[in-house]
């Protein structure tokens, strides 16, 4: 499986895989089940972080590489970020561009704006690593 986004460290090892999902009305329970299915049925590199980003939330797991159904370690409300976007931007492939923009914004945002992402170490991985958009061929 090719994930939508991969963050590589300075040694070019994957440290995070991120999946953009334009699913409305998601919950942590939904994200856990979606993650479990992805990990159980698709190839997955060993990474420090695994994330699912939806229009409503960014669900992030740290150090969880087995396919068990576990809740995310971090859940960030993205409704303020996506509220002003046109509905078309929150559907299908267009949502991947929204996520790309979000990740670019996170790279340049002060750490205190998203304290849980900062405390998890994810922001450091994003800021010091290389973000790759893994578009499907």
Could you explain how this protein is built, in words?
The protein has 137 residues and is an alpha+beta fold. The chain has helices spanning 28-41, 79-82, 94-108, 115-120, 122-128; strands at 5-8, 14-20, 49-53, 57-62, 74-77, 130-133. A hairpin with a 5-residue loop joins strand 1 (5-8) and strand 2 (14-20). The mean pLDDT is 88.
Taking strands numbered 1, 2, ... along the chain, how are they ordered across the largest sheet? 5-4-3-2-1-6
Name the helix and strand elements from N-terminus to C-terminus, one letter apiece: EEHEEEHHHHE
Q: Indicate the low-confidence ranges by residue numbers.
A: none
Radius of gyration computed on alpha carbons: 14 Å
Topology:
Layout: E1 5-8, E2 14-20, H1 28-41, E3 49-53, E4 57-62, E5 74-77, H2 79-82, H3 94-108, H4 115-120, H5 122-128, E6 130-133
Parallel strand pairs: 2-3
Antiparallel strand pairs: 1-2, 1-6, 3-4, 4-5
For this entry, give a set of tags.
137 residues; alpha+beta; 6-stranded mixed beta sheet; 6 strands
Task: Give a short overview.
By secondary structure, the protein is of the alpha+beta class. It has five helices and six strands.
């Amino acid at each position: 499986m090719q994930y939508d986004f991969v963050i590589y460290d300075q040694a070019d090892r994957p440290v995070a895989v991120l999946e953009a999902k334009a699913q409305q009305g998601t919950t942590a329970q939904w994200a856990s089940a979606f993650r479990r299915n992805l990990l159980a049925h698709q190839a997955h590199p060993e990474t420090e972080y695994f994330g699912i980003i939806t229009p409503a939330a960014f669900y992030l797991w740290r150090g969880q590489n087995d396919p068990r159904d576990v809740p995310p370690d971090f859940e960030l409300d993205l409704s303020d970020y996506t509220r002003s976007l046109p509905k078309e931007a929150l559907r299908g492939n267009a949502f991947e561009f929204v996520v790309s923009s979000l990740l670019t914004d996170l790279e340049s945002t002060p750490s205190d704006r998203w304290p849980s992402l900062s405390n998890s170490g994810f922001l450091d991985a994003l800021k010091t690593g290389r973000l790759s958009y893994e578009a499907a061929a």
